[in-house]
Amino acid sequence: MQNGYIERFNRFFREDILDAFYFNDIYQLQRLADKWREYYNFNHPHNALGNKSPKEYKPRFDEEFRGFLKCKSQHLIMLYSL
Predict the structure, then answer these.
(1) pLDDT above 70: residue 69
(2) Whether the model pTM is above 0.70
(3) What is the number of structural domains in the chain?
(4) What gap in Å lies between CA 8 and CA 58, rounded to an integer?
(5) Quick one: the chain helix, strand, coil %, rounded to 5?
(6) 21 lies in a domain?
(7) What is the mean pLDDT of residues 21-40?
């Protein structure tokens, strides 16, 4: 399944950057690619996150992760107290 994720990323990058602009030099491409990568990683809605951006999803993830850690730590305490 990893190949599917890479293919999707490549398609979005090609459509949004490589096919959308003419570049004067490699530095212009790098600047646009950096801005696009930051947008894609933090603000772009992702299907895997319920069509939320990572920035929108992070508070929910933090709550779930804290609950997971609390559950794991209680489980470990029970194991070591045997």
Answers:
(1) no
(2) no
(3) 2
(4) 22
(5) 80, 0, 20
(6) yes
(7) 91
